[in-house]
Amino acid sequence: MMNQTIINKLYEEALKVREKAYAPYSKYKVGAALLTEDGEIITGCNVENASYGLTICAERNAIFSAVARGKSNFKGLLVVAEGDDLAKPCGACRQVMNEFGDFDVFLANTKGDIERSKVSDLLPKAFGPKDL
Ligand code: THU
User: Fold this and answer.
1) Ligand 1 centre and the CA of 68: distance in Å?
2) Is the pLDDT of residue 1 over 80?
3) What confidence tens digit (pLDDT) does each residue in 25-42 have?
4) Element at 122 (helix H, strand E)
């Protein structure tokens, strides 16, 4: 179980990396902070492209960075986006999260609201590595 201190730390890191988002088209900046099983925090922001479909979301950027660093066991992921609504990971990101287990996912906004859920809440009846 993750304690409030680490959740707050993930929130701060996600807010910080959100500022680095490259989102000149949507202007919608997103930050993600991933906590690995061994206690490391790895972050990601969305990076858009003039060829819109090449855009990578903050969540996948964080997960792919972690894998590239040899970390693929996760305790939790916090995602923050602007506005009153909590961040809502897209379907592609939910599927990529599911590849790495049923960890906690914290959905947050820039006002400080944070809601805990799990990968399996966001993507029920998912197809995943255990199905192959
Ligand atoms: N985006 C994310 O990075 N994560 C989400 O959870 C939702 C969407 C990005 C992709 C694109 O750069 C912008 O938000 C608008 O879709």
Assistant:
1) 21
2) no
3) 999 999 999 999 999 999
4) helix 119-122
